[in-house]
Amino acid sequence: MNNPLLGGLSASTFLRRHWQKLPLLVRSAIPGFSGVLDLGDMIDLACRDDCESRLVVRIADRWSVEHGPFDRRRFSRLPGRNWTLLLQGLNQMLPAARQLLSRFDFIPYSRLDDLMVSYAPAGGGVGAHFDSYDVFLLQGPGRRQWRVGRPHDLALVENAPLKILKRFSPDGQCVLSAGDMLYLPPEFAHDGIAVDACYTYSIGFRAPSHRELMSQFLTFLEERLDGDARYSDPDLSVQTHPAQLGTHMIDKVERILGDISWTRRDVAEFLGSYLTEPKPHVLFAAPRKPLSELAFSHACRRDGVELALASLMLYAKANLFINGEQYKMNQVLATPMRRLANARRLLGHRIPSHGPLTGLLYRWYRAGYICLSNSDSAG
């Protein structure tokens, strides 16, 4: 099925031709896209401590980066040009941002990261750089010029607070207007400069390094080891040289470490927990006046439920993962829980009046992981 968001390409064609291979420029990917917030809204969020925000300012050839939360007065002291305000994780803050991100669900949720928005007056940008992950750059109101190419010189500007390429020779350039979109594979250098005051929405993807995956997986395995077992050597013999690391000890520890093993199931359970683990700044807001379990049961069958904006949910066979927690699904739970994970909502007629599904949903409701579909807390 052809997707207007991808310039008329089907998702499978896009993945085959472009994903992690070649850039793609799409004119009018979302015709007349007006964005999901304005500068005033961005400043409001940048002053909150539950929103990741940065302010990048360039004066001549000098760059500075400040991290939020900000005092509102900071924005009244900014120059008329050459600065950028960036907000990360917008999909965890605004329902409209979550809906925008859902347009990209032709990429698995396990790879989809978040929605970032940047605002810049004329001349604003963050310098020529490249990312280690895929990105869709969707233009909101205003215009931005992009210079794009494979980096041939990886030298960076010395002493800059950002990783800015010292010398960048683009292979091409384009100007994006509202609704235009540019897809870039990993490690394609790009430099975006605001032609006039503009907003750019960046859809980013998770690409953990091998080192991070290995480190986190070993931590995952460590939690499953017998914590009471200790090194012992009842057959210890006298050593002529006390400072020498004995072959007997090396052999024994080699056998201990050789007992560490894992299965495909362990890998799946690690990935589910790791990929749904909330970022450190994310907080879940429990309902201020929670309904009783009986009242909740009636309400969710009437209205349905949906995941809170910050909730992450995946599944693998009988394993369900939500916000770093793992659950085993029986046949009763499997179908509705998979629907909730895929659609991020579950219609009321699919929820029974009682039983393990209702009980689990109520626990998540009390924890702030889900909310009633007509609830203000859905945002």
Task: Provide the fold topology.
Blueprint: H1 11-17, E1 24-26, H2 39-46, E2 52-59, E3 62-67, H3 73-76, E4 83-88, H4 95-102, E5 112-120, E6 135-139, E7 144-149, E8 172-176, E9 181-184, E10 189-194, E11 198-205, H5 210-222, H6 247-258, H7 264-276, H8 293-303, E12 305-307, E13 313-316, E14 319-322, E15 325-328, H9 331-343, E16 345-346, H10 356-367, E17 370-372
Antiparallel strand pairs: 1-9, 2-3, 2-4, 4-5, 5-11, 6-9, 6-11, 7-8, 7-10, 12-16, 12-17, 13-14, 14-15
Number of helices: 10
Structural class: alpha+beta
Distance between the termini: 31 Å
Strand content range: 15-25%
Key terms:
single chain, 379 residues, eight-stranded antiparallel β-sheet, three-stranded antiparallel β-sheet
How is this structure best described in words?
By secondary structure, the protein is an alpha+beta fold. Helix content is 27%, strand content 23%. The chain contains ten helices and 17 strands. The chain has helices spanning 11-17, 39-46, 73-76, 95-102, 210-222, 247-258, 264-276, 293-303, 331-343, 356-367, and strands at 24-26, 52-59, 62-67, 83-88, 112-120, 135-139, 144-149, 172-176, 181-184, 189-194, 198-205, 305-307, 313-316, 319-322, 325-328, 345-346, 370-372. It has an eight-stranded antiparallel beta sheet with strand order 1-9-6-11-5-4-2-3, covered by helices on one side. It has a three-stranded antiparallel beta sheet with strand order 8-7-10, with no helix packed on it. It has a three-stranded antiparallel beta sheet with strand order 16-12-17. Strand 14 and strand 15 form a beta hairpin. Helix 5 packs across helix 7. The model has no long low-confidence stretch (mean pLDDT 94).
